Amino acid sequence: MAQQTLDISRRSATTTPSPSQCHTPEVAKLIDVSKCIGCKACQVACMEWNDTRDNIGTNHGVYDNPTDLTENSWTVMRYAEVETERGLEWLIRKDGCMHCADPGCLKACPAPGAVVQYSNGIVDFHEENCIGCGYCITGCPFNIPRLSQKDSKVYKCTLCSDRVAVGLEPACVKTCPTGAIVFGTKEDMLRHAEGRVADLKSRGFAKAGIYDPQGVGGTHVLYVLQHADRPELYSALPRDPSIGPLVQLWKGAAKPVASLALAAIGVGALVHYVTKGPNEVSDEIEKEFEDEK
Fold first, then answer.
1. InterPro entries, from UniProt (predicted)?
2. What is the DSSP letter of 232?
3. What is the C-alpha separation between 156 and 120, in angstroms, rounded?
């Protein structure tokens, strides 16, 4: 893939427009669930490249290890045994940030520049600006960001933006032994996914399809699913994710109302000052204070 710039198109809690940006095609990572063997090489590659290490976990009788995302495990494999019309199936899904086109984390974040979106669609966290409030976690419809107990900063997958900037593919893509994870422009990935869906349908998966939910404006991590009509089979992948109503309210109607209220308070204070003048302490009260001393 050609070298890309990391021009920022959006910043959290910032109304100042971003400087002009180079034209950069949107990128996407495509995860073909039907090709995944659950080897966890992507988990290891993610930790290696980002220099993170998680605690050694405990066996809970399942293959999931760790059992959930953490501030050090930015991607995890999730395994599910489900009954379908084809019988018992083992469905494996690589979980991590979906890099939404309309990111709820960015909308919810009150810290200027803590969450950014590059012109190629990647959503990244700048921890040096993070205040540890956790609002991004509330705003994410996929429950992805994790707050570190050590430094009170929030972490998640960056889609290896540093590698992408110099023309490399993300570490998880580089290491996948079956080609289940591929990376490129979103347009190319959608075209590739359509070919994979056609192949799956020819092999009896009539409901195969692409997971690119429009409730968040589409995502820059796509799935090819054998049962696209039931995404919840894949360890509770949301059927129709969207930004929560509280975040919409906070960034929608509530913000102009709060601005108007502040403006009204300012006008009221000015009117009071003009009509009543400044508060003055009478000579009697001032003398009482001096006597008490």
1. 4Fe4S_Fe-S-bd, 4Fe4S_Fe_S_CS, FDH_Electron_Transfer_Unit, Formate_DH_bsu_Proteobacteria, Formate_DH_C_sf, Formate_DH_Fe-S_su, Formate_DH_TM
2. G
3. 18
